[in-house]
Amino acid sequence: MRIAQVSPLFESVPPKLYGGTERVVSYLTESLVDAGHEVTLFASGDSHTRAQLAVGRDLALRLDDAPLKAAVAAHFAMLSDLRKRAAEFDIIHLHIDLLPMPLLEPFAARTVSTMHGRQDKKDLPAFYRRFPDFPLVSISDAQRKPMPWANWLGTVYHGLPEHLYAPPANPRGDYLAFLGRASPEKRLDRAIHIARRAGMPLRIAAKVDVADRVYFRETIRPLLGHDGIEFIGEISDADKAEFLGNARALLFPIDWPEPFGLVMIEAMACGTPVIGWRCGAVPEVLDEGVTGYIVDSIAGAAEAVARVGELSRERIRQVFEQRYSVSAMTREYLTLYQTLLDPPAVRMLEA
After folding, report:
1. What are the CA-CA distances from residue 19 to residues 52, 60, 228 (Å)?
2. Rounded to 5 degrees, what are φ and ψ at 347?
3. Three-state DSSP class for 132?
4. With contact defined as beta carbons under 8 Å apart, do 139 and 115 qualify?
5. Buried b vs exposed e over 170-183: b needs ≥16 C-beta within 10 Å?
6. Cβ pair 89, 340 in contact under 8 A
7. Domain boundaries, the chain
8. What is the pLDDT of residues 189-207, one digit of tens each?
9. How far apart are CA 11 and CA 205, in angstroms?
């Protein structure tokens, strides 16, 4: 199968540091190459892949030091190149939400658009109603709730390479972990209060975006350096196994309709329990009492910290391998691709 994978240009593929969407695009691209497919990756020029690389911009936008950048212009230039080459591909798999639709409408039937972001924004329904022929893929069923009528082709959970992380033989379990963006919706402040209430140190590996600097300066910085609250900053994939694997639990106290939450399965790959807020996709991704606990309050989260020792780290890793491996993700996407390439057969099965 000839497949185009189209990534955002904000981070390289894979990203040097933080970057959930680009990380998933990388895992899927390399897995499809391993499966013998002819794959072209549209991404920034500093990306690394065994697929054919179609350069959309010389450098990923976030790590480019140029003082003035035009992100929309860069993406539309890449999409223009993709449109000219559309006949080369059996399937065009888009990972940049709504941007491609006005340009690629003639090829909609051969596209798959994975929605990586939240779908509850005011202007989205009107936009998607204008482009009903584009098959959409959700990364959780919860993500679909604002637009259940949309042209959803399926739900495919994110997956990680099975070898990427491994549980440590003897995890220390002497701290709690927070990994992600230091932003209001991720509620790092809530994680700090949970750790304090539970009486445990908290290690924070977080990215601080420009948009979140005021929140970090005014809300988070005054809480650091006390009661074992340690800010580490961004970490790479190479550091995650040690960071997550030796934690007592990962705290995921979000305050927004999280579409998936990649860090939850990164922790599960390390055998580490997750304590997540009952919000967005959390109840869908976590198995209560198996891979972690789903909570509604700081007090409930602190109580869950005291109970995570009852969970089997071996069983947590098994659940990851069964549900959230890159092999499982790739199989599900290939099934969806084939559905688009063979619609008469699908109609016969449904009849």
Report:
1. 21, 11, 27
2. -65, -40
3. coil
4. yes
5. ebebebbbbbbbbb
6. no
7. 2-159+325-350, 176-323
8. 999 999 999 999 999 999 8
9. 18
pTM of the model: 0.91
DSSP 254: -
Quote the CA–CA distance of 348 and 351 in Å, as a whole number.
5
User: Domain 176-323 belongs to what topology?
Assistant: Rossmann fold (3.40.50)
What is the per-residue pLDDT across 67-114, written as a single tens digit (0 to 9) for each? 889 999 999 999 999 999 999 999 999 999 999 999 999 999 999 999
What is the Cα–Cα distance from 284 to 265, expressed in whole angstroms?
A: 12
Closest CA to 220 of 228, 211, 208: 208
According to CATH, what is the number of the domain 2-159+325-350? 3.40.50.2000
Confidence at residue 349, expressed as pLDDT on a 0 to 100 scale:
46
Q: Do domains 2-159+325-350 and 176-323 have the same CATH topology?
A: yes
- How far, in Å, CA of 4 to CA of 49, rounded? 13
ω into 100 cis (within 30 of 0): no
